[in-house]
Amino acid sequence: MRNKGLNAYKQVGIRDQLGTADPYEVIQMLMQGGIDRMVMAKSAIEHSDYSAKSEHISRAIAIVNALNDSLKPVDGGEEVTNNLASLYGFIIESLSEASVENSVNKVNDCQQILATIKEGWDAIPRNVRESTLNSRSAVMAGG
Fold first, then answer.
1. DSSP run (H or E) holding 6
2. Residue 56 has what pLDDT?
3. Where are the alpha helices (DSSP H) in 21-103?
4. Residue 22 has what pLDDT?
5. Which residues are CB-contacts of 82 (< 8 A; sequence separation ≥ 6)?
6. What is the pLDDT of residue 142?
7. pLDDT at 139
8. How many CB atoms lie within 10 A of CB 115?
9. In Å, how far are 17, 45, 48, 57, 115 from 99, measured between CA atoms?
10. What are the residue ranges in the chain where pLDDT is below 50?
11. Residue 6: its pLDDT value, please?
């Protein structure tokens, strides 16, 4: 019962964060959510809780799919976009295999890849984020 209350509290907190988050922060939250689900999936495999494993891997796959769907090519950044799409595809495929094989190692590999991507994302300086967001807003507004 305590876990349900804690989970409900976390969900409200996440919704509050999403309401005020810029697109960069939303991606950060998705990446962290994917990493968290992979950690939970590994624990479920280690404890032979295959129902929980399936739930956590399914949610991790859904998050990585959302990250992949959020990719938008920009001038000069096509290679980065293509590389990220390939990595996300690899993670999705490997998580599916990990679920069938109950492989902690495969989940761990996926977690490490996503954590590395997140480290790069987190390292984008605030002024670059704001500049990018402002230029996209101007384009969307017709400016």
1. helix 2-20
2. 98
3. 23-46, 50-69, 78-101
4. 86
5. none
6. 41
7. 42
8. 14
9. 31, 9, 12, 7, 20
10. 1-2, 5-6, 8-10, 12, 138-143
11. 42
Amino acid at 50: Y
Q: State the residue for tokens 């999403």.
A: 18
pTM of the model as a whole: 0.81
Tell me the Ramachandran region of residue 103: left when phi exceeds 0, alpha when psi lies from -120 to 50, beta otherwise: beta
Q: How many residues does the chain have?
A: 143
pLDDT at site 58: 97
In sequence order, the 6+-apart residues with CB closer than 8 A to the CB of 91 are 64, 110, 113, 114
Q: What integer pLDDT is reported at residue 2 of this predicted model?
A: 44
CA distance 133 to 107: 33
Per DSSP, the residues of 80-143 read HHHHHHHHHHHHHHHHHHHHHHT-HHHHHHHHHHHHHHHHHHHTS-HHHHHHHHHHHHHHHTT-
Spatial separation of the C-alpha atoms in residues 130 and 117, rounded to whole Å: 20
Contact partners, residue 98, CB within 8 Å, separation at least 6: 41, 57, 104, 106, 107, 110
